[in-house]
Structures are given as C-alpha cells and as structure tokens.
Amino acid sequence: MTAIDIATLGEDVPLLEAIRTTRAIRRLKPDPVPDALIRKVCEAGTFAPSGGNRQPWKFIAVTDPGRRRWVADRYRPIFLKYIQPAVELAEKDPDFPERKKKMQRAAIHLAEHLHEAPVHLFVAGWTRRGQAQDQALMPAVMNILLACRAVGLGASLTTLHRSFQKECDEWLGLPEGCPTTALIPIGWPIGKYGTPPRKPIDEVLFWNRFDAERESDVRQGGAA
Ligand SMILES: Cc1cc2nc3c(=O)[nH]c(=O)nc-3n(C[C@H](O)[C@H](O)[C@H](O)COP(=O)(O)O)c2cc1C
User: Fold this and answer.
1) What separation in Å is there between the alpha carbon of 75 and the centre of ligand 1?
2) How does pLDDT run across 210-221, given as a tens digit for each residue?
3) How would you class 37 by CB atoms within 10 Å of its CB: exposed for 0-12, middle for 13-18, buried for 19 or more?
4) Ligand 1 pocket: which of 25, 149, 157 to mutate (most atoms <8 Å of CB)?
5) Per the confidence metrics, is the pTM higher than 0.85?
6) What atom of ligand 1 comes closest to residue 134's alpha carbon?
7) Which residues surround ligand 1 with Cβ inside 6 Å?
8) Domains and CATH numbers, the chain
9) Helix axes of 65-82 and 98-113: crossing angle, nearest 10 degrees
10) Which are the contacts of 60, defined by CB distance < 8 A and separation ≥ 6?
11) For 109-143, what is each residue's pLDDT tens digit?
12) Strand partners, 183
C-alpha cells in the first residue's frame, strides 16, 4: 500500500454524505491498519456528547494476533450457537428477504473471520451501577463508525461479546465499574461503502404529533 497522509485522510468527506453511506462493513482484509489511523478515529469518538460532559469512554484497541484470536474464539461459538439456527431457517425460506439474508451471511463471515480483523476496538466506560451504558457510549461509537467511513476503513458495531463480558473485561484489564459496551472490528474493507437499506424518511417523520392512522396505513402497505 502506498504511504497515506493520516493528517489529511478523510478530512474532505462531506458529513451528510458520510452519514448516508456508513453501513456495517463486516468483510475485512487482514492487512494492518496504522496505529495513527486508529488514534484518529478514536479521537473523533472523543468529540461525542456525554451527560455533564463527563466523557466516560475508554477505547482499547486490540491488535496483537494472539489476543484477537482470544476474542474470536469466544465470539464465534456464541454467534453460531444462538444465531446460526435462525440463519439456516431463513436460508430455506424463499419468502425471507434476500437483503436480510445478505446481512446474515455477512454477520456469519464476521464471526468466522473475526481473528483476521486487524483491530478489535473495544469501547468501555465508567458507570455508577456497573452495567454497560449504551446511552452514554453509543454517541462515541457512532462518531467512530463515521470517522472510519471518512478515512476509508471498514467497521461495524457489535455487542455479542457481552455474552462473555465479565471474562472479557477482566482480560482487557478494565477496572470494576468500567464495562465494555461495544466491540468494533476495524480493517480495510473488502467491499464498498454504499447507501444501506433504510425506510423512507416520510414513513418515520411526523409533525407535531404521531399519526397512528398514517402509521397503520404504512404498515399495511397503503399510501402514506
Ligand atoms: C445496539 C446494536 C448492537 C449490534 N450488535 C451487533 C452484533 O453483535 N453483531 C453484528 O454483526 N452486528 C451488530 N449490530 C449491527 C446491526 O446488525 C447493523 O447495524 C444492521 O445490520 C444494519 O446494517 P447496515 O447499516 O449495513 O444496514 C448491532 C447494532 C446495534 C445498533
């Protein structure tokens, strides 16, 4: 790969375009990602809002191959045990939407290749009750996903590691009261960024008051 200028990389991507084209990229090349680039996307995370501006986040970038395998060896069996049966049913169902099948296949690919993702970025945060605090940390997670999009890295939000969270948090060396919320596997994408499938805005935007009649009309496939 030719040398990249990390300081300027991604700085010219229009914000709204990045928002519209940030999708879960679960197929990643095993090629290494410069530490400085991971630092840059995590720095974007630090610009997220937080209650009282407490900035509760800690980012742990796991890059060591043996340590990534440790994570993958725990993620994979849990994913396959709980999610693959549903995926197999969907594959046999001709009415199951192809778009969702594609997403499931990509999620299986991630589970089977997680050890190859060059960076396992864990997002953890301080909390009073010892529980993972999604609402406090997800804004930072979203900033990181957007920053990855801007600099051309592939990334996706996962939470499956919470099934072995206690073991994982101890293994990461996190103190009590600072649990992990998210695991973001990051690497250079095999596929391309693109507009993800989303409901049209007029299906989900209401003015002044939620309109249940229009909502039921939309659900039944009628005119909005
Ligand atoms: C709270 C939360 C938890 C998620 N956990 C996982 C996960 O454990 N594994 C995974 O592959 N994707 C996970 N996702 C990603 C969603 O599946 C993804 O956002 C969805 O498939 C839409 O993808 P798209 O943006 O490419 O359309 C999670 C997303 C959210 C918001």
Assistant:
1) 15
2) 998 887 766 665
3) buried
4) 157
5) yes
6) 1
7) 23-24, 26, 103, 107, 110, 156-160, 196-197
8) 15-192 (3.40.109.10)
9) 140
10) 121, 122, 124, 172, 174, 180
11) 999 999 999 999 999 998 876 666 789 999 999 99
12) 122, 158
| Bridge-based pairing state of the strands 154-155 and 119-125 | unpaired
Tokens of 5: 């200028």
Integer Cα distance of 120 and 125 in angstroms: 16
DSSP string, the chain: -----TTTTTTTS-HHHHHHT------B--S---HHHHHHHHHHHTTS--GGG---EEEEEE--HHHHHHHHHHHHHHHHHHTHHHHHHHHH-TTS-HHHHHHHHHHHHHHHHGGGSSEEEEEEE--SSSS--HHHHHHHHHHHHHHHHHHT-EE--B-GGGGGHHHHHHHTTPPTT--EEEEEEEE-BSS---PPP---HHHH--SSS--HHHHHHHHTT---
C-alpha span between 188 and 193 (Å, rounded): 11
User: Per-residue pLDDT tens for 134-185?
Assistant: 899 999 999 999 999 999 999 999 999 999 999 999 999 999 999 999 999 9
Dist. CA 157 → ligand 1 center (Å): 5
Choose the residue to mutate in 103, 159, 161 for probing ligand 1, maximizing ligand atoms within 8 Å of C-beta.
159
